[in-house]
Design brief:
By secondary structure, the chain is mainly alpha-helical. It has a single domain, classed as AhpD-like (Up-down Bundle), CATH 1.20.1290. About 80% of the residues lie in helices and about 0% in strands. It has 6 helices and no strands. The radius of gyration is 15 Å and the shape is globular. The two termini are about 20 Å apart. The model has no long low-confidence stretch (mean pLDDT about 95).
Length: about 120
C-alpha cells in the first residue's frame, strides 16, 4: 500500500467524523434515527456483532462503497474478526458481485492492510 492509499483511507475517516459532527450538531432527526437503526441492527441477537459486520463487508464490496468498506472492515476487526475472516467475507462479496466486485476488493484489501498494520489504540 502506498501513501496515496493511506491518505484516501484517512480522508474517509476524517470526512465521516466531520459529517457525523455536522449532522449531530444540526439536530438531524433522520441521522439520529439512522444511528438508532444501526445500533439495533448490529446488536447481538442470533448473530454476533462480528458476524453482522462480516456480512456488511460482503455487501459493501458488492455495492462498491469505499466508505462502507472502511467502516465495516474496521468494525469487524474491532469486534474480534481476524484477518482470515475478513478475507473470507471479501471472497463471498466477490462471488456475489462477480467481476465488478473484484475491483472493489482491491480497496477492501488495502483497508484490511491499513488496520492490520495500525498500532494498538490507533
Amino acid at each position: 500500500m502506498d501513501q496515496r492509499d493511506r491518505d484516501k483511507i484517512e480522508k474517509i475517516i476524517r470526512d465521516r467524523s466531520w459529517a457525523h459532527e455536522k449532522l449531530s450538531s444540526a439536530g438531524s432527526g433522520v441521522y439520529r434515527a439512522f444511528l438508532e437503526m444501526e445500533k439495533a441492527a448490529y446488536s447481538r441477537k442470533a448473530l454476533s456483532k462480528m458476524h453482522k459486520e462480516l456480512i456488511a463487508v460482503g455487501i459493501s464490496l458488492v455495492l462498491n462503497c469505499e466508505s462502507c468498506l472502511e467502516w465495516h472492515i474496521h468494525q469487524a476487526l474491532e469486534s474480534g474478526a481476524g484477518t482470515e475472516q475478513v478475507l473470507e467475507a471479501i471472497e463471498v462479496g466477490i462471488e456475489m458481485g462477480g467481476g465488478p466486485a473484484t475491483v472493489s476488493s482491491r480497496f477492501a484489501l488495502k483497508v484490511l492492510e491499513y488496520y492490520s498494520n495500525a498500532k494498538p489504540g490507533g
